[in-house]
Amino acid sequence: MNVxxxxxxxxxxxxxEAHANSPMAKHWHAxxxxxxxxxxxxxxxxxxxxxxxxxxxxxxxxxxxxxxGSNPFLSFLKPTxxxxxxxxxxxxxxxxxxxxxxxxxxxxxGISLALQxxxxxxxxxxxxxxxxxxxxxAGFQAQPSELIKLGLILYIAWVVACQQIDVxxxxxxxxxxxxxxxxxxxxxxxxxxLGTALIFVLILATxxxxxxxxxxxxxxxxxxxxxxxxxxxxxxxxxxxRVAAIFSSSKDELGIDLQQxxxxxxLGTGGLLGVGPGASRQKWNYLPEAHTDFIFAIxxxxxxxxxxxxxxxLFVALAWGxxxxxxxxxxxxxxxxxxxxxxxxxxxxxxxxxVVIGWGPVVGVPLPFVSSGGSxxxxxxxxxxxxxxxxxxxxxxxxxxAKPRRAIDRSIAFGRLRRKKASRG
Length: 425
Fold this sequence. Notes:
This protein is mostly helical. Helix content is 74%, strand content 3%. A hairpin with a 2-residue loop joins β1 and β2. The radius of gyration is 24 Å and the shape is globular. The protein starts with a helix and ends with a helix.
């Protein structure tokens, strides 16, 4: 019996070793260990998610634009231009030295906080859905809280890289990190935006866990965060109703549960393969915020379970790419940027999807790269450009990424030389 057990336990190991020695596995290992692979992977995933978002925004806003009496094709020009601007920002940031962003982090963070102050304390601030989070100037709107997410990550990277703090000492955390985080949270909560505040907490938690903050401080900070969230929920009747609706056995289909019920109908109608591109029924003004916070439901209705799983896999692959960067980066600042981006992008995606499928109360956070929203798209694309700058700085990556261009230049030069020889002949 013991011999049989040994043989049985050895079978999976043998199969795994045989699989690991296969030509395909060797090629995969060689490709994924090539310098610059992380850069190419992250850039490809971001572009794919952004173009999926562009398609879904057009589909989800068509009926809304027709109902408002505007041409949906002309209205589609705005998200297209925003995507182009986002890609340009990402490309420019990826070509810069990431140390430049870390060095100017206090300035970037300070500007983002000042803009949020403009929202709260001047006549330029505008609100919607109970939140006051937008600046409106000459018909253009911007959401500074999205920039604060970027500024907060860069600020923590600056503290870790330039101030050399000891994260095991509460004194250093209280001196450098706590004031900045509390100011950011206070300004955002001043606009009644609990969803964005939760993303801030998620970013902080992810970075602090990575930095190795002692567990006793993590539990203390976690308990303080839960208490603050509880107070924020308790003082708002609408938030209390949303949380209570999650645990209620009966659903108010025309009231507090309207969005999640309609989202469930859309996902259920989509089935395995979906009803087809552009054929969603819920976007016919049945599902509020179908193009922003609940765009995942429209995706599931039109492209089915296959489409939603594909988007989930893209986010999982992006998390893997950010993890690779975190491990490979040699600079503590670059590591914090990768970890912070993971807490922001992946955490926000998980919260958005959990809300859509009814696993959490409606908190009003968009799906990164996919939901409609200029401030969100430009901020996340800029963040990923800085992440790509960190990936380009990996040992050997810059030279490897420059090779294709050099090869093209050589082939062009060789072609010209051949043409000159032929003309002489």
